[in-house]
Amino acid sequence: MRKLSAFSALTVFAVLAPSLAFTAEAVGPGALTVAGEKKTIELERAVGDLLVIDGRVAIEGVVRGDVYAVDSEVVLRPSGVILGSITLTGGALHLSAGAVLPPTVELRGAEFFGPDGERADPKAPVFVGQGATKVVLSAEPVSTSSVALIKAVLPFERPVPAAGVEVPDLRGWAPGLGLRLGKFVEDPPSMDIGGVSRVSLAHDAIRGAFQRSYRGARGRVRVSGVHLVKPEASAMLFGQIVDATRAVPTGLSIGMNHGEGAHRFFESRGRYVMLWQRGAWLFAIESRLDTDRATAFQQKQFSDQIARSLASGFSIDPNLQKGARR
Questions:
Q1: How much is the average pLDDT of 3-8?
Q2: What angle do CA 319, 320, 323 make, to 5 degrees?
Q3: What is the DSSP string of 122-162?
Q4: Facing residues of 226 across strands?
Q5: Distance between alpha carbon 158 and the CA centroid of its chain, in Å?
Q6: Whose CA is closest to 80, among 115, 32, 116, 131?
C-alpha cells in the first residue's frame, strides 16, 4: 500500500486497467449531459464537456472541453467547434468539412465518417483535416456488459453535503439496508482508502474526516469522507489517490471529470470503490456483495444503494444541526 502525504503534488487523472478502462477527463463550467434523446448545440451556444449516452447530438456551436459518447451518434456540423478531444464507445461519429476539428479522436467499436469520406482503420491511425486531427480506432472489442457498466458509472452525480455542513453534522447518518455499524472513526491521523493508499490527514488543509465500516446479509461496506478547506485541496487529494492506484493491478477502472469535480469506480483487492470529489469534499464507498458470483454491474448497484442513502443524509439542515448541538 502506498502512503500519501495529503498534498505532495498534483497528479493527473489517469486510466490503468487493461481489460476495462474508460476515462473522461478535463471539464469546466457549462458541462452538458445528453441521455436517451436527440439534441442540437445551436450555433450561438457554447458548452464545457459533452457526455452523450444512448443519444444523438448535432454540434453547430462550440464544445470548449471534450466529447464522450457511448452508443450514441455525434455529428459535427460545418459551423461546429470542438476544442478538446472526442472519445466514442459504440455508435457513430460524423465530422464535417469546414468545422474546427478536435486534435484527437479515439473510437472503440464505433463507426467513423470523416470530412472527406475517410474511414477509420484499426491497423493504423488516420489523419484528417489536412493531417491535424488524429483518429485512432481500437480493434479490441467492447463487451455488452462493459458498455452497460460504463453507462452506469459515467453519469454519477457526486453527492456532497450542503454548504455549512461539517463532519460532526454527519454523525447520525447510517446506510440502513440491514447493515450494522462496525468501526466508527472520526478525525483519524491517517486513512486507508481503496486498499491502495494510506492518506495522512495531519494537515491544516483538512477540516475534518471520518471512516465507518458496516456489515450485513448483503455484504460489507466502508464509507470514508474528508472535508477540506477549499476545492483545490480536495481535487489535489483525489488526484493523489487515483495516482496511487497505478501500482495496483486491476481489471476495472472507469472515471469521469465531467462537470464539477471528478469520480472513479474501480476494483482493488476484492473490493469495489466509488471515489469522488466535489467542492471541498472527498468521499469513498468501498463495498462488496457477500458472494463470489456477483458481477461488476451488481457490485456497482450495491454501491449505488449506499450512495443514495448517503446523499439523503446530506440533505440535513446545517442550521438545525448546529442548533441541536448547542
A1: 42
A2: 85
A3: TTS-EEETTTTEEEEEE-S---HHHHHHHHHHTT-----PP
A4: 209, 282
A5: 8
A6: 115
Residue whose entry in the numeric block shows the C-alpha cell 496511487: 244
Reading across the β-sheet that carries 62-63, which strands appear in turn?
46-47, 62-63, 81-82
Per residue in 160-175, pLDDT tens?
Answer: 999 899 999 999 999 9
- Cβ within 8 Å of residue 312, ≥6 positions away: none
Rounded alpha-carbon distances, angstroms, from residue 127 to 8, 46, 83: 39, 26, 17
pLDDT tens string 277-311 = 999 999 999 999 999 999 999 999 999 999 999 99
User: Is the Cβ–Cβ distance between 153 and 254 less than 8 Å?
Assistant: yes
C-alpha cell at 271: 473490493
Grid look-up 502512503 returns 3
Distance CA 230, CA 261 (A): 12
State the distance between the two ends of the chain, measured CA to CA, in whole angstroms.
Answer: 41
Q: What is the distance, to the nearest Å, from the Cα of residue 163 to the centroid of all Cα atoms in its chain?
A: 22
Report residue 257's pLDDT band, with 50, 70 and 90 as the boundaries.
confident
48 to each of 27, 58, 64, 121, how far by Cα in Å? Answer: 6, 15, 5, 29
Other Cβ atoms within 10 Å of 2 Cβ, number? 15
Single out the residue of 104, 120, 38, 35 nearest to residue 70, CA to CA: 35
Strand partners, 209: 226
Tracing cell 471539464 back to the chain, one arrives at 27
| DSSP code for 179 | P
Across 34-59, b (16+ Cβ under 10 Å) vs e yields: beeeeeebeeeeebbbbbbbebbbbb
Report which secondary-structure segment, H or E, holds 180: strand 180-186
The CA radius of gyration of the chain, in Å to the nearest whole number, is: 21
What does the DSSP assignment read for 281-303? EEEEEEEEES-TT--HHHHHHHH
